[in-house]
Design brief:
Blueprint (H helix, E strand, L loop, with lengths): L2 H21 L9 H26 L5 H9 L6 H23 L13 E4 L6 H12 L3 E5 L15 H9 L4 H4 L3 E5 L16 H14 L2 E3 L6 H12 L8 E3 L4 E6 L2 H14 L5 H5 L3 H5 L4 H7 L3 H5 L3 E4 L5 H10 L4 H10 L4 E4 L1 H13 L5 H17 L7 E4 L1 H5 L1 H11 L1 H23 L2 E4 L1 H14 L3 H8 L3 H12 L3 E4 L1 H5 L1 H12 L4
Parallel strand pairs: 1-6, 1-7, 2-3, 3-6, 8-9, 10-11
Antiparallel strand pairs: 4-5
Helix pairs in contact: 1-9, 3-4, 15-17, 16-18, 17-18, 21-22, 24-26
């Protein structure tokens, strides 16, 4: 193809691309000479920033006990999981550091410490991994295994995990290749239907995940990413080197998790069938969480996982179910506790939330009955404090003291509080009415005066409907602004008195006032 034809084709392609971006409400800037020069000038600065991002990885020196101590600040219990994860994480990133220092290490075979976490929902599996990623300073992605399909046309492609990791690293591919991918609900992609799993398509998802967990070059643009593909073609038309198109998964750590309820039953059956002698009764009475500790590779394979897939998850650890006492400890001792979030919510309204010890225990007991682990705390707290958040900000309340009765009977407690605060509610409404008059004067330059009876009518209506003065006046007196401006223009008076008659029948009364203002003195 001649040079003029090549340029003409490029011009046509660029116009089509611009039109596509315009319809998608996107923009595209063709890098010209000035842009290229600026890029060359800023390249050293960008390289320096990239080195700073990788500094904590290149200088990784954490010890397993230090990682465990950090996790203790945020996660209650799960001692075994903390210990196992701490060792796995330190081994993995020490190897990464050696590979960066000595590229020759890449030639040596190394088995990654990909991990599988087993345990019921709400025990802190995701939070453990998220805290670890935050401590190390690497990008972190959490996804649900059930959203992926074998082909990627129906459901997501597993390589989207890696692409999301790049997004989490703000587009820094080099940083993303040292990140952590957390895949939850992994037990739902077991290919065997005998234990309530998915159909054979789950096997395809396992095979695709297996490729990522080993080592592969994952594409940064999916087969449905039309914009990325057109961008690559345009770069090629210019004779420009294409941007990096893939990311190597060699140093990406994969951690998967699942409840594995059916697997626990399966292990119990195997143990019960194999137990003999005096240990038979004690082994057959194992709880689900305890029986998972005895899970072997053959159990995972029988459950519906490919042998190669299970083999790529050499680190296995079981998380314990949480008791009511554990939930109490989570609220009282854990940093970033959900109680602190609720205190901050009330503080935003100028209210100091104080929760008694007996109230915390009551919340923990109710959350335990939800059977969703630590997630039950949010459910209970929202149910208890929802109406308080709605009502109290409109009252002159500075402190909310939550005791056991308030937690167990929040509706009745709020009614009692509202009854005691009724006089305070009246004071609030009077101040709101005064504020409405001040705002009207400030905006219109006209002074509103309310008669005693008008004030009483407005406040009584607000009390009955449980609404603010501002909302009441906006609805009932919505025409007053226009009417008062007309009256002021006709009479020159910059004060207007609102009577009880206007509050009761604003349309007719304001019309009469306006009509009288047109009459000559």
């Amino acid at each position: 193809m001649s040079e003029p034809d090549r340029k003409e084709n490029f011009k046509s392609l660029e116009e089509q691309f611009r039109e596509m971006l315009r319809k998608a409400n996107l923009s595209f800037v063709v890098p010209g000479a000035a842009t290229a020069g600026a890029a060359r000038e800023t390249a050293p600065e960008e390289d320096e920033k990239k080195q700073d991002k990788l500094k904590h990885i290149r200088e990784f020196s954490l010890k397993p006990r230090e990682v465990r101590d950090y996790l203790n600040r945020f996660v209650i219990r799960q001692e075994e999981a903390k210990k196992v994860l701490s060792v796995a994480i330190c081994d993995h990133y020490n190897h990464v550091r050696r590979c960066i220092e000595r590229p020759g290490e890449l030639e040596r075979e190394y088995a990654k410490h990909n991990t599988i976490l087993l345990g019921p929902t709400g025990v802190g599996k995701t939070y453990l991994v998220r805290c670890i990623a935050r401590l190390i300073g690497v990008p972190f992605v959490k996804a649900d295994a059930t959203k992926f399909s074998e082909t990627g046309y129906v459901g997501y492609d597993v390589e989207d995990l890696v692409r999301d990791l790049v997004k989490a690293a703000d587009g820094d591919v080099e940083l993303a290749q040292y990140g952590i991918i957390f895949l939850d609900e992994i037990d739902k992609i077991a290919s065997s239907g005998a234990y309530g799993g998915r159909d054979v398509s789950g096997r395809g998802v396992q095979i695709n995940l297996l490729k990522l967990m080993e080592e592969t070059e994952a594409g940064l643009f999916s087969q449905t990413d039309l914009i990325g593909q057109v961008q690559a073609v345009m770069d090629m038309q210019r004779g420009k080197d294409s941007a990096r198109r893939t990311i190597n998964t060699r140093h990406i750590l994969f951690i998967v998790s699942g409840a594995f309820d059916k697997l626990a039953e399966q292990v119990q059956r195997r143990i019960k069938a194999g137990s003999i002698g005096f240990g038979r009764d004690s082994m057959s009475e194992l709880r689900a969480g305890d029986s998972l500790r005895y899970a072997e590779t053959r159990d995972f394979i029988e459950y519906g996982f490919e042998p190669e897939f299970v083999g790529r998850l050499p680190v296995r650890v079981v998380c314990d179910a949480l008791s009511a006492d554990d939930l109490t400890e989570i609220m009282l001792r854990s940093e970033d506790s959900i109680l602190e979030q609720y205190r901050a919510d009330f503080e935003g309204y100028g209210i100091d939330l104080r929760i008694a010890g007996e109230a915390v225990k009551a919340i923990a007991r109710m959350a335990f009955e939800e059977k969703t682990g630590a997630r039950g705390l949010m459910t209970v707290l929202e149910r208890v404090f929802r109406d308080f958040k709605f009502e109290l900000p409109s009252l002159p309340v500075k402190t909310l003291a939550a005791d056991r009765r308030l937690v167990e009977a929040p509706t009745e407690s709020l009614k009692d509080m509202m009854a005691r605060k009724e006089s305070l509610r009246l004071d609030v409404l009077r101040e709101e009415l005064a504020a409405y008059a001040r705002d009207f004067d400030k905006e219109q330059g006209i002074s509103l005066k309310f008669t005693t009876e008008a004030r009483r009518r407005i406040i009584d209506a607000c009390m009955e409907k449980n609404e603010s003065v501002k909302d009441f006046c906006r609805e009932r007196l919505r025409d007053i602004e226009y009417a008062v401006r007309l009256i002021t223009r006709n009479t020159g008076k910059r004060a207007f008195t609102v009577t009880a008659a206007i509050v009761d029948n604003p349309s007719d009364e304001l019309s009469k006032r306006v009509a009288r203002s047109f009459r000559k003195p």
